[in-house]
Amino acid sequence: SGSFYGFFEYHYNSAGSLDAADYLPRLTDPAAYPAYGDGNVALWGMHYLGIGGTWTVTPLVPLSFALLANLADPSLLVTVSGEYNFSENGYLTLGVIAGLGTGPEFSGGVVSAYRSEFGAYPLIVYLSFTYYF
After folding, report:
1. Are β-strands 4-12 and 47-58 bridged in parallel, bridged antiparallel, or unpaired?
2. pLDDT tens digits for 58-117?
3. CA geometry: angle at 56 spanning 99 and 118, to 5°?
4. Whole-number Å distance between alpha carbons of 21 and 83
5. Which of 29, 46, 57, 91 is the most buried (most CB within 10 A)?
6. Which residues contact 127 (CB under 8 A, 6 or more apart)?
């Protein structure tokens, strides 16, 4: 519509795994999993669904959200942000990124196993000031 834009997507990651027990080896054994060792792949699972959108509250204030679901573990990544265009070239953005899912197992203060992908993500709150010149 004139004030809302939305999207929906399916993502297939051929380098990923259907089992959360396979996440740690992918991240720690670059010889066996070169796509992860080279930094070519960021997601750990194989099948994902995403949905998101932006609502333009006013021409100077858009609010955005996105959800990314790992269908195998299951876990969810949630992002929400709002922006304020305070001058012709100036923007102030406040956002939150949260991973929801079962947290990792630890042994001696080190991750010994992942039980979900996004459950391992910390809560991130950010404030961004941008000025274009």
Report:
1. antiparallel
2. 999 999 999 999 999 999 999 999 999 999 999 999 999 999 999 999 999 999 999 999
3. 10
4. 38
5. 46
6. 92, 93, 94
**pLDDT tens-digit series, residues 13-44:** 999 999 999 999 998 998 889 999 888 889 99
Burial tier of 79 (Cβ tally within 10 Å: 0-12, 13-18, 19+): middle
Q: In what order do the strands lie in the sheet with 61-70?
A: 4-12, 47-58, 61-70, 75-85, 90-100, 124-131
Chain position carrying tokens 């197992």 = 105
Tokens read off for 107: 């042994």
Element (H, E) at 79: strand 75-85
- Contact present, 64 and 96 (Cβ < 8 Å): no
Residue 1 has pLDDT above 80, yes or no: no
Q: Which residue has the tokens 């080279």?
A: 38
